[in-house]
Amino acid sequence: MSTTVDPLVPLALLEAVRSVDMPDGELEAEFVEELRTKRFGLSDTVLAQIRRYNDAVKRSQRLPIEEGVGIAKLIGRRPDAEAVFREAGRGLARQTYGRIAAPTRKLVRALPTMIARPLALRHVRRIGARYLGGGVRRVGATILLDVPVSVSLDAGPRQTGCAFYEAILRELMQLLVGGVGAVEHVRCMSRGEKTCEWRAEWRAIR
Question: What is the CATH number of the domain that holds 113?
């Protein structure tokens, strides 16, 4: 069982909290200050932790997995928890996709599907292993993401936290191949199964 997590994971979770709690448009300074005391994502504590995780990312310093689990549980108590988890998943996918060399990203999108898919799958596997502590494999026209140690397992009622990984897989597929079919949560440890697993259908726009 993994005992550490890449700092991008708790960073993505906190940045999503901050993004969702950020007020829209221009507001009076007094009102913004009032919001800072009411919305967790705007607090100095969250800002300080975001800075700390950014520093850890720069140093490639893995962190205790409990840090990610703790943040996920805080999110799970919110009434908008699913929206925050999905925002965090999309954010993490974009961050990890951005770490693929730009020429490679362009090549994957430009190549014919038959050649592009194995290349895309290779990068999804690397991202799954490094950032999600999971394995990725292809089964026919689908790919499966297997995460044996989920930071968001039981973070909220009705498997709310599982939306985090679903959003990551969906966004990664969209970014890499330009399209994705259905993404399903097919196995979950909260249901007594041995692992958490998501299945995505390959779908490309070209």
Answer: 3.30.1380
Residue type at 202 in one-letter notation: W
**Secondary structure letter of residue 23 according to DSSP:** P
pTM of the model: 0.88
DSSP 81-109: HHHHHHHHHHHHHHHHHHTS-HHHHHHHH
pLDDT in tens, 91-133: 999 999 999 999 999 988 888 878 888 888 999 999 999 999 9
Instruction: Give the Cα separation of 194 and 113 in Å (integer).
Output: 33
In the chain the first and final C-alpha atoms are separated, in Å, by 40
Q: How many domains does the chain have?
A: 1
Q: What is the DSSP letter of 33?
A: H
Q: How far is CA 60 from the centre of its chain?
A: 18
Contacts 24+ apart (CB under 8 A), 29-36: none
pLDDT of residue 44: 80
Q: What is the pLDDT of residue 116?
A: 83
**Domain coverage including residue 86:** 4-202
Instruction: Give 133-167 pLDDT, tens digit per residue.
Output: 999 999 988 999 999 999 999 898 888 999 999 99
Q: What is the DSSP letter of 53?
A: H
Average pLDDT over residues 68-89: 94
Number of C-beta neighbours around residue 61 at 10 A = 12
